[in-house]
Write a structure and sequence with these properties.
This protein is of the alpha+beta class and 74 residues long. 39% of the residues lie in helices and 19% in strands. The protein has a 3-stranded mixed beta sheet. Strand 1 and strand 2 form a beta hairpin.
C-alpha cells in the first residue's frame, strides 16, 4: 500500500510532465526515495504532495525519507 501511495503522488496529473524513475531503498520498514537532483524544485506541487505523504506515514509510525525535501539530504 505504501508503494501504491507513492506511485499515485508521483503520477498525479496536475502537470503534463514526465516522471523520472525514482530510486527506492528499503531497509525493513524504512523507505528512502531519491529523485534526480533539482527535479522536486522544478515540480513544486509534487514536492508538496510528497511532504504531506511523509507526514502521513510518520503519523502511522512509518519512516519515509525523500531526498531533496529536508535540508542536508542533497
Amino acid at each position: 500500500i505504501r508503494l501504491l501511495r507513492l506511485a499515485v503522488v508521483l503520477n498525479h496529473s496536475r502537470e503534463a510532465h514526465e516522471v523520472p524513475v525514482p530510486q527506492l531503498i528499503l531497509n525493513n520498514d524504512q523507505f528512502q526515495l531519491a529523485l534526480p537532483e533539482g527535479w522536486l524544485d522544478e515540480h513544486p506541487l509534487t514536492r508538496s504532495d510528497l511532504e504531506e505523504e511523509v507526514r502521513y506515514q510518520e503519523k502511522a509510525n512509518l519512516a519515509l525519507e525523500v531526498k531533496g525535501l529536508q535540508s542536508g539530504d542533497d
